[in-house]
């Protein structure tokens, strides 16, 4: 927003910080409990950041709607209205993510188990920080706007000056807005107007709904066909712990033996008297002939 009062840069930054705090708390707790840290865990912060920022947008959108509904209400009622709208969506999202990753802890691969433990715990902390830390930041930012304070310096902005005699850039950076005083109520966001007036009526048309059903059916059929074509193609070294003997084994195997092609093995499926010298000689002769 081109307003030194309504600018929410710090609000967005604190939303990202909330995700970062969740990652630090999760990693610290898991390391304290002795859960091994493997290279795949390094991907967890990106997942947490995506969900945390999504929760942040939900909270901000609910807060803005509460402001439009109850412009003269106190902070307590505004925050209550915000949580009543946003908390359900945030809770369902977190529960499904946590459930999915904690189910992954049942796997037999230690590295996958560690990744799921780190990430699932981080989702729990992300939910906690969103409903506590970020909710407090919303209230502080609201009090700053109510006091007509600058978004960067938090110094009270003088709104009594005549904006017509100043440039638009000066008004946006030092007074509050190019077009109106910051004390006036703000209208709906253009994106909200677009979805309500144009996109909503478009997708609820009966022909568009029929087309959506057909497209989803085609998508579902393609997805089922794709699942039948999936083939395993995973690098096994990525599923081992960092200090596992498996990693140097696969590295040496690829370095020294990859040019010889696949390994050929001979399996004896019957019971053999290995104590009998003649049997041992016969096995050795078979191996020599095969070589």
Description:
This protein has nine helices and no strands. Helices cover about 65% and strands about 0% of the residues. The longest helix has about 35 residues, at about 110-145. It folds into three domains: about 10-185, no CATH class; about 195-230; about 260-290, no CATH class. With about 290 residues, it is mostly helical. The chain has helices at about 10-30, 45-70, 75-105, 110-145, 170-175, 190-205, 205-230, 245-255, 275-290.
Outline: elongated
Rounded to the nearest angstrom, the radius of gyration is 30 Å
Query: Low-confidence spans: pLDDT under 50, at least 5 residues?
Result: 178-183
Q: Based on the structure, what is the oligomeric state of the protein chains?
A: single chain
Termini gap: 76 Å
Helix content: 55-70%
Distinct helical segment count: 9
Task: Encode the helix/strand succession as letters.
Answer: HHHHHHHHH
């Amino acid at each position: 927003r081109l307003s030194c009062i309504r600018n929410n840069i710090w609000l967005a930054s604190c939303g990202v910080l909330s995700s970062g705090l969740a990652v630090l708390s999760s990693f610290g707790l898991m390391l304290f409990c002795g859960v091994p840290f493997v290279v795949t865990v390094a991907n967890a912060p990106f997942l947490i950041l995506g969900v945390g920022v999504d929760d942040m947008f939900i909270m901000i959108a609910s807060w803005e709607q509460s402001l439009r509904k109850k412009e003269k209400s106190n902070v307590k009622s505004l925050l209550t209205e915000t949580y009543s709208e946003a908390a359900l969506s945030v809770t369902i999202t977190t529960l499904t993510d946590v459930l999915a990753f904690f189910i992954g802890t049942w796997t037999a691969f230690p590295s996958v188990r560690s990744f799921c433990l780190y990430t699932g715990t981080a989702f729990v902390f992300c939910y906690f920080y969103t409903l506590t830390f970020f909710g407090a930041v919303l209230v502080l930012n609201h009090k700053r706007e109510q006091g007509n304070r600058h978004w960067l310096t938090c110094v009270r902005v003088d709104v009594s000056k005549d904006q017509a005699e100043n440039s638009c850039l000066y008004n946006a950076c030092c007074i509050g807005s190019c077009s109106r005083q910051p004390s006036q109520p703000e209208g709906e966001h253009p994106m909200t107007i677009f979805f309500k007036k144009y996109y909503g009526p478009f997708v609820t048309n009966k022909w568009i709904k029929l087309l959506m059903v057909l497209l989803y059916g085609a998508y579902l059929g393609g997805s089922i066909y794709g699942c039948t074509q999936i083939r395993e193609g995973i690098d096994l070294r990525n599923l081992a712990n960092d200090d596992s003997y498996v990693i140097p084994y696969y590295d040496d195997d690829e370095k020294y033996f990859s040019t010889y092609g696949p390994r050929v093995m001979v399996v004896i499926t019957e019971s053999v008297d290995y104590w009998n010298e003649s049997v041992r000689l016969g096995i050795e002769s078979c191996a020599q002939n095969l070589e």
